[in-house]
Design brief:
Blueprint (H helix, E strand, L loop, with lengths): L2 H15 L8 E6 L9 E9 L9 E8 L5 E8 L6 E8 L4 E9 L7 E10 L2 H11 L2 H7 L8 H20 L6 H24 L4 E6 L2 E6 L3 E5 L3 E4 L3 H5 L4 E2 L5 E5 L3 E7 L3
Parallel strand pairs: 4-12
Antiparallel strand pairs: 1-2, 2-5, 3-4, 3-6, 6-7, 8-9, 9-14, 10-13, 11-14
Helix pairs in contact: 4-5
């Protein structure tokens, strides 16, 4: 199956997990005391329990997303039917002191099925939420780096301009070739040379540009491109609305695959503790 189709089906499964009506399994989120929120992701403990054996199968993935939308976070779990209690470490977007999350359990990432879901509220410390918001919703940083799109090299641009002018002159010169057959041959040869030059010039343009500025990674693309970031990173947004509309999938601490759209700049911040 094509990678894009697989990704779309995977995302659909995650969203289904967060909209499912099953809610028999006990789920709680407990903030970690005296913690920081690198990249806007605050540490917490996800406590799961299935004392009545309501799970139809073993859950291996927990899916968490803010109720209003935003990045989808995945965590490895192993919760069997009848589990008394299990707690795992997670990190969550914490851009407000009072946050509500949708938590879902999957049998596996490969579309194994939605097993349970719950809506869980968390009261974050006010100072931590303020720091997390500054890290994750940062309009000034977008203002500073919004021009980080791939550009033509100036020398290449000059070369292309000179070649275009020369090509136009040579095309005009073919009008003075006496015989029609020779004139046609000259035009075809010249057109082929100009086409080859155009391909070479386009090949000299960056498809995607990555720039590292301290804890920030700035990505810009000229066409839809998938970029892989190794390490712990969290997305940075220019506004709450942009965050709410994002459906990027994060596995905190693991490799991150980012789809950058044409003429788009995306910024990520290091989220390592």
């Amino acid at each position: 199956m094509h990678r894009t189709v697989r990704a779309a089906l995977f995302l659909q499964t995650l969203l289904l997990a967060l909209a499912s009506a099953r809610g028999e399994v006990e789920m709680r989120l407990l903030p970690v005391a005296d913690a920081n929120a690198p990249g806007g992701l605050a540490p917490a403990r996800l406590v799961l329990a299935d004392p009545n054996g309501d799970l139809p199968a073993v859950a291996s993935v927990a899916v968490i997303r803010l109720e209003g939308g935003g990045p989808i976070l995945l965590f490895d779990v192993t919760v069997a039917p009848g589990t008394k209690q299990q707690a795992i470490d997670v990190v969550l977007p914490a851009v407000s002191p009072q946050q509500t999350y949708r938590v879902g359990l999957l049998a596996g990432e490969g579309g194994g099925g939605v097993l349970a879901q719950a809506t869980v509220s968390v009261a974050w410390p006010v100072e931590l939420a303020a720091r997390a918001r500054r890290e994750m919703i940062d309009f000034p940083v977008y203002e500073e780096y919004q021009e980080q799109l791939p550009r033509w090299d100036p020398a290449l641009r000059r070369t292309v301009l000179v070649a275009a002018v020369l090509g136009a002159v040579l095309l005009a010169a073919t009008l003075f070739v006496g015989r029609p057959a020779r004139r046609l041959a000259a035009v075809l040869v010249l057109a082929a040379a100009m086409a080859a030059g155009a391909v070479w010039a386009v090949g000299g343009i960056e498809t995607v540009r990555r720039r590292d500025y301290g804890s920030l990674v700035v990505l810009g693309a000229r066409r839809t491109t998938t970029v892989t970031l190794n390490g712990a990173f969290a997305p940075v947004y220019r506004s709450q609305a942009q965050m709410d509309g994002d459906d990027i999938v994060l596995r905190p601490g693991k490799r991150l695959r980012v789809t950058v759209l044409p003429e788009q700049v995306r910024i990520f911040r290091a989220a390592a503790p």
